[in-house]
Amino acid sequence: KAGVTQTPRYLIKTRGQQVTLSCSPISGHRSVSWYQQTPGQGLQFLFEYFSETQRNKGNFPGRFSGRQFSNSRSEMNVSTLELGDSALYLCASSLATPGETQYFGPGTRLLVL
Amino acid sequence: AQSVTQLGSHVSVSEGALVLLRCNYSSSVPPYLFWYVQYPNQGLQLLLKYTSAATLVKGINGFEAEFKKSETSFHLTKPSAHMSDAAEYFCAVSVSGSARQLTFGSGTQLTVLP
């Protein structure tokens, strides 16, 4: 089975712009979660989608949003970018059963200038 | 709410020596516990997980971890370090009902010395 894929892998934006990141889960996985990784804050949960519905959301401002499509692919959007949004954004997919492993993609590295 | 503490942000061992990475968790309900490894410029790879079956969990690449409820610990060990083990290791916890929301520790960078 192909793993979790994320596009693009690298992105450079300027403050005030918006960005959309994409994640394709492992075939058959219906849950997609997003995490932000920074040197200062570590790995933090952004949100989780299941069957096109957001089921869980972390403590991030409303500038961070996402959606999931009927084929389970997910996108996250960050509007009005700030310098502090520079991070590695990781997507993970799972079968959405308790204790089930989340499989991570390689991440999208976003640099905001 | 659950939390994870990883003691030691940097650990150095000699090749062939024992690897011990410490993880303590806090959870008001029985947790699911995970160890992930991250190599430079890559995502996270699962090493092993505890889901209330055996308390001693064996994972990939010779790693194992023991769940100790009385100590709220889930330390990761490997009997003999290899140069390829150099990476960052993350302990994570989730609880029933929010199994897709992982709470991560701050990570431990493992250096293996020749």
Quickly list its features.
heterodimer; A: 113 residues; 7-stranded mixed β-sheet; 4-stranded antiparallel β-sheet; 11 strands; 0% helix; B: 114 residues; mainly beta; 6-stranded mixed β-sheet; 5-stranded antiparallel β-sheet; globular
Task: Please explain how this structure is put together.
Chain A has strands at residues 5-7, 10-13, 19-24, 31-38, 42-50, 53-57, 64-68, 74-78, 87-94, 103-104, 108-112. Chain A has 113 residues and is mostly beta strands. In chain A, the strands form two sheets. In chain A, strands 2, 4, 5, 6, 9, 10 and 11 form a seven-stranded mixed β-sheet that branches. Chain A is globular and about 40 Å long. The termini of chain A are far apart. With 114 residues, chain B is mainly beta. In chain B, 0% of the residues lie in helices and 56% in strands. In chain B, strands 2, 4, 5, 9, 10 and 11 form a six-stranded mixed β-sheet that branches. Chain B has a five-stranded antiparallel β-sheet with strand order 1-3-8-7-6, with no helix packed on it. In chain B, a hairpin with a 7-residue loop joins strand 9 and strand 10 (103-104). Chain B is globular and about 45 Å long. The relative contact order of chain B is 0.33. Classes of the chains: A mainly beta (113), B mainly beta (114). The interface between A and B is medium-sized, with 29 and 27 residues.
